[in-house]
Design brief:
Elements lengths: L5 E5 L2 E5 L12 H19 L11 E4 L15 E3 L1 E5 L3 H12 L9 E5 L24 H11 L3 E5 L16 E4 L4 H8 L5 E7 L8 E7 L5 H4 L13 H8 L8 E4 L2 E4 L1 H21 L1 E9 L7 E6 L8 E3 L5
Parallel strand pairs: 5-6, 5-8, 6-7, 8-9
Antiparallel strand pairs: 1-2, 2-3, 4-15, 9-10, 10-13, 11-12, 13-14
């Protein structure tokens, strides 16, 4: 028998379950709504596609603001970051940009978005990356993403070169970076640069980890090299000949995809959940100077989420805008 789920936003938290909670949840906000939707889609995917017997059978609750903490405090969604540097505009970066586009800015024209990615959109991105449309194919992701953001009133700057070690931002450029790349060198370079706050999101790399999320915040408790030690060399598992031909032809890519029953499938809902956590931590940083410098989450079992709170070295350093008056 087919089962379904219901999902709700409860403040900054997302809830999914097979029936409505006994106590009505509090009013949610945009980030709680994003997270609830991602969790709900993930549950249905696990049930309908992966045949997970535990999916759609229990109620799960998880907070993007305080991952893994029963009492991580609460804040109103009243102060929003006024400038972002988005490094990487693939699966994770597009989810972050989409989430930013939902925030209740009173004047989006005053918000500055630096969009950095040197890659072009490919056919395989259509099923994986939440903003990619057919007319993006063959165009640079940063330019397409900038057009999407400008249509919503944001100011944008396009950067198509790579972020390498030694890259520094200038004083008038965003001090808040949301990083969503699978390149270890770029992640370390961004975390070790002179940003005021870096929020890096990573997704699981194997089929058993496709619902796993890890968020790192810098400057934090650990250095970039401690967060990402040199990996033991393991040769990449080869694809079968047909899939390798599609990769070589640029019709699919490996980013955000897993192979199930011989088919390349994306799980963009995991990236959207990661983006909700990133953006929630950015909002927390501009509100009270705090953020979680480490969050480990698996959407398969949100009760296993863990988090560690940290504080900005200089609270109030990040520019912000007040949300619309109803907040």
């Amino acid at each position: 028998m087919q089962r379904g789920v219901q999902c709700w936003a409860d403040g900054w938290a997302g809830l999914v379950g097979i029936e409505a909670p006994a106590d009505p949840p509090r009013g949610g906000n945009e980030i709680g709504g994003v997270l609830a939707g991602a969790m709900g889609i993930g549950e249905v995917f696990r049930s309908a596609v992966l045949g997970d017997k535990l999916a759609c059978r229990r109620t799960s609750r998880f907070s993007a603001l305080s991952p893994g903490c029963e009492d991580g405090g609460d804040i109103d969604l009243a102060y929003l970051p006024a400038a972002f540097w988005l490094l990487g505009l693939g699966n994770l970066g597009q989810a972050a940009l989409w989430t930013i586009g939902l925030l209740p800015y009173s004047d989006p024209s005053l918000i500055s978005l630096f969009l950095q990615d040197g890659d072009k959109s490919e056919f395989g991105n259509l099923a994986i990356q939440v903003l990619t449309k057919p007319d993006w194919i063959g165009r640079k992701k940063a330019r397409s993403a900038a057009l999407w953001a400008e249509e919503r009133g944001f100011g944008t700057t396009i950067i198509e070169n790579r972020f390498v070690e030694g890259t520094k931002r200038s004083a008038d450029e965003p001090g808040l970076a949301l990083v969503g790349v699978d390149n270890l060198a770029a992640r370390r370079a961004a975390a070790g640069s002179n940003f005021d706050l870096v929020l890096d999101a990573g997704l699981g790399a194997t089929p058993s980890e496709i619902f796993d999320i890890r968020i790192h915040g810098f400057p934090g408790t650990r250095s970039p090299k401690q967060a990402w030690p040199e990996p033991d060399f393991q040769p990449e598992m080869p694809l079968d000949r047909t899939l390798q031909e599609l990769v070589d032809a640029g019709r699919i890519d490996r980013c955000g995809a897993v192979t199930i029953a011989g088919r390349s499938l994306g799980v963009p809902s995991t990236a959207v959940a990661a983006a909700a956590i990133q953006v929630a931590q950015a909002c927390r940083a501009v509100c009270d100077g705090g953020f979680f410098d480490l969050a480990d989450v698996t959407l398969v079992n949100c009760r296993r989420a863990t988090g560690r709170r940290h504080a900005l070295a200089r609270p109030g350093i990040l520019p912000f805008q007040q949300a619309r008056s109803e907040y």
